[in-house]
Amino acid sequence: MNQNTTQFLTLVRREILRFVRRPYNTFLPPIITNALYFSVFGVILGSQIGQIAGRSYLQFVLPGLVVLGAISDSFENASFTIFHGRWNDYIQAVLTSPMSNRSMVAAYVSASALRGIVTSLLIIGVGLIFTSVSVPNPVYLVSFLLVITTLFGGLGVIGGLWSSDFDYLTVMNQFILRPLVFFGAVFYSLEELPEFWGSVSLLNPMVYMVNGVRYGMIGVTEIDPNTSLAVLTGTTVVVLSIDYVLFRRGYGLAE
Amino acid sequence: MTEPAIRASGLQKRYGDVQALDDLDLTVDQGEFFGLLGPNGAGKTTFINTLVGLVHKDRGTAEVFGFDVEDDYREARDRIGVAPQEFNVDRFFPIIEVLEHKAGYHGIGRAEARERAEDALKTVGIWDKRDTRFDWLSGGMKRRFVLARALVSDPDLLILDEPTAGVDVQLRHDLWEIINRMNDAGTTILLTTHYIEEAERLCDRVAIMDDGQKVEVAAPDDLMARGTDTIVLGLAEMPRTTPRLDVEGVTDVELTDEGLAVTAMGGSQTAPSIMRELEAQGHTVTSLDIRRASLEEVFVDMTRDDREYAEVSA
After folding, report:
1. Which positions ≥6 away from B308 have C-beta within 8 Å?
2. Most buried one in A136, A141, A143, B163, CB count within 10 A?
3. How many domains does chain B have?
4. What's the average model confidence in pLDDT over A190-198?
5. PROSITE patterns from the xrefs (chain B) (predicted)?
């Protein structure tokens, strides 16, 4: 194994061990939260809502909840690990090593994307207790999950570098990400909105993610999944490039 | 030709109104034990952080073993082990894993990283604490651990920023022994310290820094030779007034309870002339004590703030 690979894998391993060894902080919360979502929205309220796009309400909201969990955790993982490392200065052990800036970014983003995917699988697992999905387009499902967790891992890196206090992390997760997801057609169909608000919703990038994953899981979408995937992939490349430039310039890392 | 371990030229770094590094030129040879002395804010830590990439210089160049610290940062950092003044250790993992990770960041495979981590912990004497997290170590153990982390990548250049700050005498001596062994084995050491005795005892050469500039670089003995020694002479009968001594090198003469205190450059060379002059004036010298200038006194003289000095004088 060459030196670059060893360096990259060491940081990825460190990041994975950090979240795997703390399941009560990392994996249990989305399991509990989503079990509650499915119970309340799916079983109790869902029976009164009926079908949307020919699917039960529970089947309809499941992909959105998967997206919510995936992006929250991949973003939170990257932003927390970088900010916490800066806050306590231990990120300097990485920064003063011969690792390339590209490897550092790749490691932080990969580990965060992996956490987002694990969270997705756990939410799907919980969802399957309450309902069933046929996954008619598994390639799209996997592709969308990979792209959106990588994208939000990359955004988390920016958030972690930008934050100068723990409050910043809360603000980004609770006041920016969650509202975007909740207004991202997780719990409703765009067709149910007045035309104006339906058009406004198309400005929300979460709509494309939720529809993409929904297409993969239950074969229903209101937006062309190929266009969504292309736009999201392009956005991911741009975000990762920004990550790299920030690391190279030492933004938030060097004086 | 062998590249120096460190070569800095015209290095500048400014933080707002503060010029942390002001056109700093400095060369440290391979295998040298080099000390950086200076008051707080002199720019020592800024200089170190420039070498390891935690500070981006505004101007000038800095090289480690011939590798530019920015253009060839990977090659430069691969040769450096740094033990910083402030603890900056990953609190999530037992200390042996922290060392394995550090070795891994240097491209060392897992099996060898484990071996190196164990060796480093044994070297600094805290192997039995290998499964403990950093927060649970005592203050002295934390210092030992930070040194172990600097050693785990087997660096060619070991940078120690105040490594013995706040540790007891025994631990200080233990750390000195480890560092000396590293230096004997060929590792270049760059040490910053507030303990002048430490620099006097360990370093081949020291640089005195102040206000981001290099004030002087020399061997500790050479620097001390430049300081003014105090020669205390016992006289058979103490005069009522201070005798006038017209001897080259004498800068001050004072009557004290201990005798006649003469401040002079190069005390050993000047003492015979002083004694002859005193005897020519009719005094009988009964004892002689030459107190050499300490590195600390030289350091204080060289880093004394002119403005502060002016205020005191006024």
Report:
1. none
2. B163
3. 2
4. 78
5. ABC_TRANSPORTER_1, ABC_TRANSPORTER_2
- Is the residue at B312 inside a domain? no
* Residue B287 belongs to domain spanning: 228-292
Q: Tell me which chain A residue has its CA closest to the CA of residue B79.
A: A98
Number of Cβ within a 10 Å radius of residue B173: 12
Residue B201 to residues A94, B44, B139, B173: CA-CA distances in angstroms?
A: 33, 20, 24, 11
pLDDT band with cut points at 50, 70 and 90 for residue B1: low
Would you give the end-to-end CA distance of chain A in angstroms? Answer: 34
pLDDT category at B311 given cuts 50, 70, 90 is: very low
The ipTM estimated for the assembled molecules is 0.85
Please state, as a whole number, how many other Cβ atoms lie within 10 Å of the Cβ of residue B268: 12
Tell me the C-alpha to C-alpha distance, in Å, between residue B84 and each of B91, B140, B166: 16, 14, 14
Closest alpha carbon to B148 in B193, B188, B182, B173: B182
- pLDDT tens profile A27-63: 999 899 989 988 887 777 767 777 777 788 888 888 8
- B74 closest CB neighbour out of A93, A94, A100: A100
Nearest by CB to B53, which of A11, A18, A96? Answer: A96
| B113 and B171 inside one domain | yes
Looking at residue B294, the DSSP 8-state letter turns out to be: P
Taking an 8 Å cut-off on Cβ atoms, the answer to whether A96 and B106 are in contact is no
Chain B residues in contact with A14 (beta carbon < 8 A): 90, 93, 101, 104
Residue contact A96–B98, C-beta within 8 A: no
Interface with B, mutate which of A2, A3, A5, A6 (most B CBs under 10 A):
A6
Higher pLDDT, A75 or B219: A75
CATH assignment of the domain containing B136? 3.40.50.300
Q: What angle do CA B233, B234, B239 make, to 5 degrees?
A: 100
Of all residues in chain A, the one with the smallest CA distance to B107 is: A3
- pLDDT (tens digit per residue) in B266-283: 777 788 888 888 888 888
B194 shares a domain with B65: yes
Please tell me which of the candidates B54, B100, B102 has its beta carbon nearest to residue A255.
B54
Lowest mean pLDDT among A163-167, A213-217, B28-32, B119-123: A163-167
- The verdict on a CB contact (< 8 Å) between B105 and A100 is no
Residue A197 backbone zone (phi > 0: left; psi -120 to 50: alpha; other: beta):
alpha
CA atoms within 13 A on the CB side of B52: 27
DSSP letter string, B54-112: SS--SEEEEEETTEETTTTHHHHHHTEEEE-SS----TTSBHHHHHHHHHHHTT--HHH
Does the beta-carbon distance from A255 to B73 stay under 8 Å? no
